[in-house]
């Protein structure tokens, strides 16, 4: 009897296994458990991506998609652990900045030969998008977006301070003006001018990086760290002058800074493209203090326009082959086909056909940050991107949270980044 | 089938011991001894987690270089007053152990153990980078320091709080058993629930502590991202979480103290706080040692609180050793370096266990 | 005496309440609507009383949540580990305490030395070892490494040593074999010590975080500890605070109930463990 039951169970597994190919999918973006399959109705990164995945699961014949953990904090640790343990997910999301590390070690697959069969047309990707997934002549993933730091604006606070002209916010063009504007907002409304996560995730790092790039400087050049210099000091001081004058609070973390902005306690929130639709939805709510929401390109405080940017992309493990690889590619194609739905988050699309569509142009606030694509920048590619960001995050936190001397912090950061480059 | 097992076969004592020991020895060798030796072996290699996974030959034998890269530096010098406070305590400890031994107050072994520990405290903090020198890894020793600070606050905190509460609750009544339950309850929550609760408790915007502070007109503390309070926040969380077992152990110890002692004490007017000081405490010495040792071993391995509540921040002030090992291994993929740190952790814990063993033996004599 | 006792009971109510506040707050938040919590967490009496009230968070959790699955995994892992540790520790503890055999002293010392190896010092080699074996993402990967903890053997060894010899000798005279003595005579006597060990192991397994974090990458094998950590993240805007708190309550409720039922046993068990340890 017992054998019979086990036999039946095995048979059932084999039977379903034959009809449905299971594709495991690893992603961050956070959990959304009741996303549904309507890719047009969901709000926020987590729910939009999950609705696309759910739709793939429902619409792709013979393929079931299983979503693995969606944790942010440990994502890359876990993906690495999975690769090292020989059990990587069949498809997974990653950042463009991780390509050198994962492709360099041969972990992720060069899929240039699989694209056509899967129905993905790489010539539809914008030039930058293709560059984002390319590494030493191969294509290592399907790009999904460009995301960049924006200035999210509370127009009511700006108007009260007289910083609105022709329905657009007046943004600073120099560090001096930044301080001036911040004082105007404080005087008129009593609220902070600017909020951002300076205390936990590296939003503050990305802000300082942008200000360095605006001075045509970078944190390293080839194998040499270049952090202890005037450009970095100028960039840091542009921020610390706000903290010192009590016009911004460096102690807020991601959730707290976001809450401050939604509560109408800060005129500007520096955060990514990923929250545009979420803030739009929040601003429409009666009970949320933020009413008049506007999105602006990161302003140029120095010579050249620049803002931090990165790309999300989807990759498959190099070890994947046969039917499993074909199934994984179908999932990637499905995500590629829904580029417009993902763009609803506020991210910039990667496909020319989407970028030129009326639907894309009609997305909320889209016309307010069209300049961002042209000024998007990132640090040079490195296998140690994560560790380098961590060094900068610690030393910058030391400056604004613990009062460490700017020069000392920059010197320490330079020495440590140099160590990482030398390793 | 059943008939055969019924048949009694005589086996010798040695065979029986072998059969009974086999499950333990097998798991012990496989999952502790072998990994431990393998860890030492990994620590002698330049070993990238991903690279070695794809190509087993991608590791390189580097001898003790990982240890050097983690713990040593360029132009490291030693000075007797480089870190006056710690070295002062160390020197005082050495002098004290010599004095106590001379005065015959402690045994030879205790004096040697105490003397050695103090000598280490005198010697180790004396190392510092000289002119133009630097530590190869600037984060390692501060991380060890943070871990010691965490242990230094948490262990006395848990011990004293648990002792006081146990003393107050040491009565077999209904009310007291309800209180015992309440104080023990937090112990059974998992680390993620605990950090979930306290992360929000400490939030300057949504937190209960901030809400109460504001209601009384104060401005809320930004606990988790202020360098002065981040460690305190983690310590408070940990004390709240791990007080239960210590309390129960103390209650058990107190029940072993003979009632006659208290009755005799009452005749000498020793009740309440005096009874606690003169009768309870001296008779609880063994339990107190046990609780402290268990706590030190447990708290030295802190990971979840720092990982989930502060991510080691701000500016590394709550970065602890196990989290650094985890990060080096799984974020930076450097298994060799991480293993060298793990061996260091073992040496510290081992040293403490031996010290405790020596002191414990003496108590028994 | 009686009056001072009453005062003591009343005075203790304050610290006891403070001790309970964080837990109460979690429960209360889990019963409040997410839209309200997004603005303020202190609507009624600092948020300690769930007004406005909703059970929505729990409904959503059971409709879509993975919390029940994670919970089940934790139960399986904790129970498996407890059973494993009990078997390994009682057998070895008995052999080391009561039987004579070659190399006994060496093995005992080896076991004692193992007490000094913290688990966090071997998780990296264990990780690579299990990776080579292809064992990650399974229940046995979560259970096996923790069975080798010698503290259990040590505890049982101490306990068996304290049992009077004549019980055993009487059985020997009746011609009972060693294994039978262990099974029929010693094990029943060891019940309290086994209970202590079981409770300590279960609590330990329930709270373990680092090993599951590196070993389990697939949600099917997430324990509740790991699962909850994965939904705490700051970027996850879709899950409201109330919902996360509800997951926390669901994760804790069964162990709390279990603790309340077995409470007397737990305290008793700790007492045994405390005096023997």
What does this structure look like?
The complex is a heterotrimer of chains A (423), B (365) and C (277). Chain A is an alpha/beta fold. Helices cover 45% and strands 16% of the residues of chain A. In chain A, helix 8 (175-189) runs parallel beside helix 10. The longest helix of chain A has 18 residues, at 2-19. Chain A is globular, with a radius of gyration of 23 Å. The model of chain A is unreliable at 1-18 (pLDDT under 50). Among the domains of chain B are: 76-135; 139-333, MetI-like (MetI-like fold). Chain C starts with a helix and ends with a helix.
Could you tell me how far the N terminus lies from the C terminus of chain B, measured between alpha carbons in angstroms?
Answer: 54 Å
Radius of gyration of chain C: 24 Å
The neighbouring-strand order within the major sheet of chain B is 1-2
Assigned CATH class of the largest domain in chain C: Mainly Alpha
What's the domain count of chain C? 2
The CATH C-level class name of the domain at 139-333 in chain B: Mainly Alpha
**What would you say the CATH architecture of the domain at 139-333 in chain B is?**
Orthogonal Bundle
Number of continuous helical runs of chain C = 14
Please outline the major beta sheet of chain B. 2 strands, antiparallel
Could you tell me which chain pair has the largest interface and how many residues each side has?
B-C, 100 and 99 residues
* Shape, per Cα inertia axes of chain C: globular
Morphology call of chain B = globular
Largest sheet of chain C: none
Q: First CA to last CA of chain C: what distance?
A: 34 Å
Low-confidence stretches of chain B: 1-7
Number of strands of chain C: 0
Write the layout of secondary structure elements.
The complex is a heterotrimer of chains A (423), B (365) and C (277).
Chain A: H1 2-19, E1 21-26, H2 45-59, E2 63-67, H3 75-84, E3 91-95, H4 99-104, H5 115-118, H6 127-133, E4 134-135, E5 138-139, E6 142-154, H7 155-160, E7 164-165, E8 168-169, H8 175-189, E9 192-195, H9 203-213, E10 220-221, E11 224-225, H10 230-244, H11 254-262, E12 266-272, H12 276-283, E13 293-296, E14 307-315, H13 322-337, H14 339-343, H15 352-355, H16 358-361, H17 372-375, E15 376-377, H18 385-402, H19 406-422
Chain B: H1 2-6, H2 13-43, E1 45-46, H3 49-54, E2 60-61, H4 65-71, E3 73-78, H5 84-102, H6 108-123, E4 127-135, H7 140-169, H8 174-185, H9 191-202, H10 208-215, H11 230-255, H12 259-267, H13 272-283, H14 285-300, H15 304-310, H16 321-330, H17 335-364
Antiparallel strand pairs in B: 1-2, 3-4
Helix pairs in contact in B: 2-17, 4-17, 5-6, 6-17, 7-11, 7-14, 8-11, 9-15, 11-14, 11-15, 14-17, 16-17
Chain C: H1 2-30, H2 34-39, H3 56-64, H4 67-98, H5 104-114, H6 123-133, H7 139-143, H8 151-161, H9 165-173, H10 178-189, H11 191-207, H12 210-215, H13 224-231, H14 241-276
Helix pairs in contact in C: 1-14, 3-14, 4-8, 4-11, 4-13, 9-10, 11-14, 13-14
């Amino acid at each position: 009897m017992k054998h019979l039951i086990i036999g039946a169970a095995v048979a059932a597994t084999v039977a379903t296994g034959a009809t449905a190919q299971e594709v495991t999918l690893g992603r961050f973006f956070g959990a959304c458990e009741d996303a549904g399959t309507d890719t047009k109705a969901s709000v926020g990164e987590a729910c939009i991506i999950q609705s696309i995945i759910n739709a793939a699961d429902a619409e792709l014949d013979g393929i079931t998609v299983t979503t693995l953990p969606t944790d942010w904090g440990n994502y890359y640790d876990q993906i690495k652990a999975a690769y090292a343990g020989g059990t990587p997910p069949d498809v997974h999301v990653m950042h463009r900045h991780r390509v050198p590390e994962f492709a360099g070690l041969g972990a992720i697959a060069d899929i240039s030969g699989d694209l056509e069969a899967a129905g993905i047309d790489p010539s539809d990707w914008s030039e930058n998008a293709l560059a984002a997934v390319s590494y030493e002549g191969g294509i290592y993933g399907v790009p999904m977006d460009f995301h960049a730091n924006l200035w999210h604006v509370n127009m009511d606070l700006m108007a009260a301070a007289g910083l609105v002209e022709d329905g657009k916010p007046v943004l600073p063009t120099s560090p001096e003006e930044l301080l001036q504007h911040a004082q105007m907002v404080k005087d008129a409304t009593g609220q902070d001018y600017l909020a951002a996560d300076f205390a936990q995730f590296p939003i503050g790092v990305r802000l300082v990086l942008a200000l360095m790039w605006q001075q045509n400087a970078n944190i390293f050049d080839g194998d040499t760290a270049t952090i202890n210099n005037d450009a970095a000091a100028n960039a840091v001081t542009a921020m610390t002058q706000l903290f010192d004058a009590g016009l911004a609070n460096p102690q807020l973390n991601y959730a707290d800074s976001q809450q401050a902005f939604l509560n109408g306690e800060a005129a500007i929130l520096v955060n990514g493209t990923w929250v545009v639709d979420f803030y739009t939805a929040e601003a429409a709510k009666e009970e949320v203090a933020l009413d008049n929401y506007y999105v602006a390109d990161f302003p140029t405080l120095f010579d050249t326009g620049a803002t931090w940017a990165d790309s999300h992309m989807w990759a498959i493990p190099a070890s994947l082959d046969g039917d499993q690889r074909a199934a994984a590619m179908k999932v990637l194609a499905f995500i590629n086909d829904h580029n417009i739905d993902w763009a609803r988050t506020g991210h910039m699309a990667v496909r020319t056909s989407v970028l030129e569509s009326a639907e894309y142009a009609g997305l909320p606030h889209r016309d307010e940050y069209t300049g961002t694509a042209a000024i998007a920048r990132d640090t040079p590619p490195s296998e140690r991107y994560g560790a380098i960001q961590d060094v900068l995050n610690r030393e910058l936190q030391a400056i604004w949270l613990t009062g460490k001397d700017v020069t000392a912090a920059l010197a320490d950061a330079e020495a440590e980044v140099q160590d990482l480059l030398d390793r | 089938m059943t008939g055969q097992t019924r048949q009694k076969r005589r086996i010798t004592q040695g065979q029986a011991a072998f059969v009974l020991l086999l499950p333990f020895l097998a798991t012990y060798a496989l999952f502790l001894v072998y990994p431990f030796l393998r860890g030492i072996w990994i620590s002698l290699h330049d070993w990238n987690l991903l690279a070695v996974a794809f190509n087993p030959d991608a590791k390189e034998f580097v001898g003790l270089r990982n240890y050097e890269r983690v713990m040593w530096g360029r132009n490291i010098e030693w000075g007797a007053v480089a870190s006056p406070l710690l070295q002062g305590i160390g020197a005082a400890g050495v002098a004290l152990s010599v004095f106590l031994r001379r005065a015959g107050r402690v045994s030879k072994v205790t004096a040697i153990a105490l003397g050695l520990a103090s000598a280490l405290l005198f010697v180790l903090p004396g190392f510092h980078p000289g002119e133009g020198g630097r530590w190869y890894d600037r984060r390692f020793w501060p991380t060890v320091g943070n871990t010691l600070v965490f242990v230094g606050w948490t262990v006395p905190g848990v011990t004293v709080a648990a002792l006081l509460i146990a003393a107050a609750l040491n009565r077999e009544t209904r009310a007291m058993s309800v209180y015992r339950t309440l104080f023990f309850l937090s112990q059974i929550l998992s680390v993620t629930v605990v950090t979930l609760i306290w992360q929000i408790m400490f939030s300057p915007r949504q937190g209960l502590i901030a809400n109460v502070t504001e209601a009384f007109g104060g401005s809320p503390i930004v606990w988790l991202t202020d360098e002065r309070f981040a460690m305190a926040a983690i310590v408070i969380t940990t004390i709240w979480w791990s007080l239960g077992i210590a309390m129960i152990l103390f209650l058990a110890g107190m029940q072993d103290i003979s009632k006659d002692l208290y009755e005799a004490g009452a005749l000498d007017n020793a009740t309440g706080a005096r009874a606690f000081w003169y009768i309870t405490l001296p008779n609880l010495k063994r339990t107190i040692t046990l609780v402290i040792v268990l706590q030190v071993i447990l708290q030295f391995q802190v990971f979840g609180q720092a990982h989930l509540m502060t991510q080691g921040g701000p500016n590394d002030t709550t970065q602890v050793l196990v989290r650094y090992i985890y990060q080096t291994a799984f974020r930076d993929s450097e298994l060799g370096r991480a293993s060298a740190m793990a061996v260091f952790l073992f040496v510290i814990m081992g040293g403490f266990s031996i010290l405790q063993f020596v002191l414990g033996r003496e108590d028994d004599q | 005496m009686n009056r001072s006792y009453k005062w003591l009971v009343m005075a203790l109510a304050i610290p006891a309440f403070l001790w309970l506040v964080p837990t109460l707050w979690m429960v209360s938040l889990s019963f409040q609507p997410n839209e309200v919590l997004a603005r303020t967490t202190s609507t009624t009496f600092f948020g300690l009383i769930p007004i406005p009230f909703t059970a929505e968070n729990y409904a959503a959790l059971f409709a879509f949540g993975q919390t029940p699955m994670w919970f089940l995994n934790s139960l399986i892992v904790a129970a498996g580990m407890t059973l494993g540790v009990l078997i390994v520790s009682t057998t070895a503890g008995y052999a080391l305490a009561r039987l004579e055999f070659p190399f006994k002293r060496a093995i005992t010392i080896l076991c004692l030395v193992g007490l000094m190896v913290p688990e966090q010092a071997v998780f990296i080699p264990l990780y690579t070892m299990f990776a080579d074996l292809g064992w990650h993402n399974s229940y046995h990967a979560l259970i096996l490494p923790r069975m080798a903890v010698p503290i259990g053997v040590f505890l049982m060894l101490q306990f068996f040593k304290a049992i009077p010899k004549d019980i055993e000798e009487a059985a020997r005279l009746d011609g009972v074999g060693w294994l039978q003595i262990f099974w029929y005579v010693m094990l029943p006597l060891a019940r309290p010590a086994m209970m202590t060990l079981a409770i300590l192991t279960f609590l330990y397994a329930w709270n373990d975080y680092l090993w599951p974090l590196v070993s389990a990458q697939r949600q099917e094998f997430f324990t509740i500890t790991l699962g909850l950590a994965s939904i705490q993240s700051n970027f996850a805007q879709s899950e409201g605070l109330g919902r996360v708190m509800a997951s926390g309550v669901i994760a804790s409720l069964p162990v709390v109930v279990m603790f309340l039922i077995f409470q007397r046993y737990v305290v008793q068990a700790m007492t045994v463990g405390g005096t023997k340890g």
